[in-house]
């Protein structure tokens, strides 16, 4: 299906085609898109999108003037990102691989990521579409790796923007980034009702102490980090 991604106040609408099996733009995508606009992308800046999914954040960064590399472990996601770039008159460099290992030795002015962050009861690695959101029992399967490797892919004046749920620990991300040598802070937040996946896991989330007994609201945060 072809849909119109929600636009920002001064931004043109982007065309977005999302096939089955690829994560479609949602509230977290829009939050990170807003953060990219606040950050600004200078003409010719090198941008890395880790876990690009549909590619819409990569397309937005390219539209703003960035030279964008989009990484995903899913071939279908990379094909989707390439097509969405064409639909919007932009070009991306796509790389198949596991996060920053797909761009060895490269450094970037801006790194963006909307990684899987939903806590999952299964101990086995997620498969199929679930790979787009399931991230281990604490939701930090990829977040911790991104925090640890961010300094190796950021240029000295570079910036990391990452979005995730409060369920996987905002303070844990801030501390992890600071341990990696980055100065980090929350720059945006949004509250929304639990979606279908979280509602289906509500009992388990409460048993794990990840949400209060009465909790049915998720807070999404955008964290910004840079070299100290």
Provide a descriptive summary of the structure in words.
There is one protein chain. By secondary structure, this protein is of the alpha/beta class. The protein is built from seven helices and nine strands. A seven-stranded mixed beta sheet has the order 5-4-3-6-7-9-8, sandwiched between helices. The radius of gyration is 17 Å and the shape is globular. Residues 1-9 have low confidence and may be disordered.
Provide a count of the helices: 7
Q: What amount of the residues lies in strands?
A: 25-35%
Strand order of the largest sheet: 5-4-3-6-7-9-8
Tell me the span between the first and last alpha carbons: 44 Å
Helix content: 25-40%
The 3D shape can be described as: globular
SSE class = alpha/beta
Mean pLDDT: 90
The major pleated sheet works out as: 7 strands, mixed
Give the SSE order as H and E letters.
EEHEHEHEEHEHEHHE
- Radius of gyration over C-alpha positions, nearest whole angstrom: 17 Å
Q: Got a strand count?
A: 9
Taking pLDDT < 50 over at least 5 consecutive residues as the criterion, the unreliable ranges are 1-9
Task: List the topology elements.
Blueprint: E1 2-5, E2 14-17, H1 27-39, E3 46-50, H2 56-63, E4 67-72, H3 75-87, E5 93-96, E6 108-113, H4 143-153, E7 154-165, H5 170-179, E8 182-193, H6 196-200, H7 202-207, E9 217-227
Parallel strand pairs: 3-4, 3-6, 4-5, 6-7
Antiparallel strand pairs: 1-2, 7-9, 8-9
């Amino acid at each position: 299906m072809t849909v119109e991604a929600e636009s920002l106040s001064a931004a043109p609408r982007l065309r977005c085609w999302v096939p089955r099996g690829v994560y479609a733009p949602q509230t977290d995508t829009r939050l990170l898109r807003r953060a990219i606009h606040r950050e600004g992308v200078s003409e010719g800046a090198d941008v890395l999108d880790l876990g690009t999914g549909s590619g819409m954040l990569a397309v937005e960064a390219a539209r703003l003037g960035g030279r964008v590399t989009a990484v995903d472990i899913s071939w279908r996601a990379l094909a989707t990102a390439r097509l969405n770039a064409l639909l919007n008159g932009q070009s991306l460099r796509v790389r198949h691989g596991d996060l920053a290992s797909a761009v060895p030795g490269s450094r970037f002015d801006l790194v963006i990521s909307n990684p899987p962050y939903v806590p999952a009861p299964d101990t086995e690695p997620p498969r199929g579409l679930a790979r787009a959101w399931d991230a281990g029992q604490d939701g930090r399967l990829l977040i911790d790796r991104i925090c640890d490797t961010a300094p190796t892919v950021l240029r000295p004046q570079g910036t990391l923007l990452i979005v995730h749920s409060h369920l996987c620990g905002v303070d844990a991300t801030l501390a992890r980034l600071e341990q990696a040598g980055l100065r980090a802070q929350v720059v945006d937040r949004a509250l929304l009702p639990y979606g279908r996946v979280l509602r289906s896991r509500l009992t388990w989330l409460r048993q794990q102490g990840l949400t209060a007994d009465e909790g049915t609201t998720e807070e999404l945060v955008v964290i910004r980090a840079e070299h100290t």
